[in-house]
Design goal:
Layout lengths: L1 E6 L2 H17 L4 E6 L1 H8 L7 E4 L8 H6 L1 H18 L3 E5 L2 H13 L3 E5 L11 H8 L2 E4 L4 H8 L3 E3 L4 H6 L8 H8 L6 E5 L4 H21 L4 E6 L5 H8 L5 E5 L2 H7 L2 E4 L2 H10 L3 E5 L3 H10 L7 H6 L6 E3 L5 H13 L1 H18 L4 H13 L1
Parallel strand pairs: 1-2, 1-4, 2-3, 4-5, 5-6, 6-7, 8-9, 8-11, 9-10, 11-12, 12-13
Helix pairs in contact: 1-2, 1-18, 4-5, 5-6, 10-11, 10-16, 12-13
């Protein structure tokens, strides 16, 4: 069968790559074409010749009301290209991975073209923009959800779904960084053998622009009190040093490494994270963390009035309580982050309680094999 996959950001590239492995394993005749990134592209070239990557997500990832307006013409051109490519390739199914602002438009087009539509990692309609439920009901044949708390919500909405666990369990367990020693990690990256503090600023340029100034203020204040500690920015593979250097400057106590998120988290004493998938990854790896997020003020103002959940982090949503602290918008300050980081780095009892909560998060997500199970379910649905 022919599978057309659309992923629009780094987390979609990760989950798309694991889904592709499952599709190739379960369907020896599988042909894939996709919008994604380097992880999906690597899986494709391990199984097929030619070029299956239509467009790299790094060329167009965007988030936020103001940012979408600014890049509106570019997004429309990308959508037109996607429609034309789907029409020309004639897939048996279009598989959409998260990225709802773009992917719901693709769902509408594919549905009206008579192509089956699956949505993997459903839009977070339980958190905001519940009006999208009508679009899911109208244009999507089956949802494939990844969080246990989503099941009662979609049951109430009467939307057909499959829940087979969370793919991050497999992605993390199989990653080489989890098997590597600290000594090898330090030797490979050139980082010093000091206490490391991880900084994760996201993969989009607008996120980096919002996070990094606060992170650098934190690094400066922390360095004054803990001069031997080193901050490590786990830089997104989609970005370049230019994206970070203008913020880092000449600070010797701040290092930037690319494509090493799991390894940095594993070897860090604590982490400051911009929410999103990375926060859940830190919980599964076992890194004490504090979450912070800041948007464009206009986007943040709108978001506050649209968001209907208590927490902004997936781990806290899974437990329905604060396993780790979150700071949003005006609360995302150097002072708040530094106070919490002092506890994360030095209070063993506090760290132990957080790690215990991490165990509950992992248990709630279920066991391994989610990506393969989703691939099997998709193929059965198509049959």
């Amino acid at each position: 069968m022919k599978y057309y996959i659309v992923a629009g950001e780094a987390s979609g590239d990760l989950h798309g790559s694991n889904l592709m492995k499952g599709l190739y394993a379960e369907d020896p005749q599988a042909q894939l074409r996709f919008w994604g990134g380097p992880l999906m592209d690597a899986v494709y070239h391990a199984h097929e010749a030619g070029d299956g990557l239509v467009e790299d997500y790094r060329e167009g990832a965007v988030m936020g009301v103001v940012e979408v307006i600014r890049k509106g013409p570019q997004l429309l051109r990308r959508f037109d290209r996607c429609k034309a490519d789907i029409t020309a390739w004639k897939p048996d199914v279009v598989i959409l991975i998260d990225y709802p602002g773009f992917n719901l438009k693709v769902a509408e087009f594919a549905h009206k073209a008579g192509i089956k539509v699956f949505y993997y990692i459903a839009p977070k309609v339980w958190a905001t923009r519940e009006g999208r439920v009508k679009k899911l009901r109208a244009w999507v044949d089956k949802l494939f959800i990844v969080f246990p708390f989503e099941k009662p919500y979609f049951d109430r909405q009467g939307l057909p779904y499959v829940y087979a666990g969370n793919p991050l369990i497999d992605a993390i367990a199989s990653h080489p960084a989890l098997q590597e020693s600290r000594e090898d990690f330090l030797a490979r990256t050139g980082l010093p053998n000091e206490r490391l503090i991880a900084l994760l600023a996201g993969s989009r340029s607008m996120e980096i622009g919002q996070m990094m100034p606060v992170y650098m203020s934190l690094a400066d204040a922390w360095h004054a009190a803990h001069p031997d500690d080193v901050f490590v920015v786990a830089a997104a593979p989609a970005r370049t040093m230019k994206d970070y250097q203008k913020y880092v400057g000449a600070r010797e106590w701040v290092k930037v490494v690319f494509g090493e998120t799991y390894a940095v988290l594993k070897n860090a004493r604590a982490a400051v994270i911009n929410s999103g998938t990375a926060s859940l990854e830190a919980a599964l790896i076992g890194t004490p963390q504090v979450v912070g997020y800041r948007m464009n003020p206009i986007t943040g103002f709108i978001a506050r009035r649209l968001i209907r959940v208590k927490y902004i982090s997936l781990g806290n949503l899974i437990l329905d309580r604060l396993a780790f602290k979150e700071y949003f918008q005006e609360y995302f300050t150097e002072a708040n982050l530094r106070e919490e980081l002092e506890r994360l780095a030095g209070d063993d009892q506090y760290r132990s309680a957080m790690l215990s909560s991490y165990g509950e998060i992992r248990a709630a997500l279920g066991g391994s094999g989610a990506s393969a199970a989703v691939a099997r379910a998709m193929i059965e649905e198509l049959k």
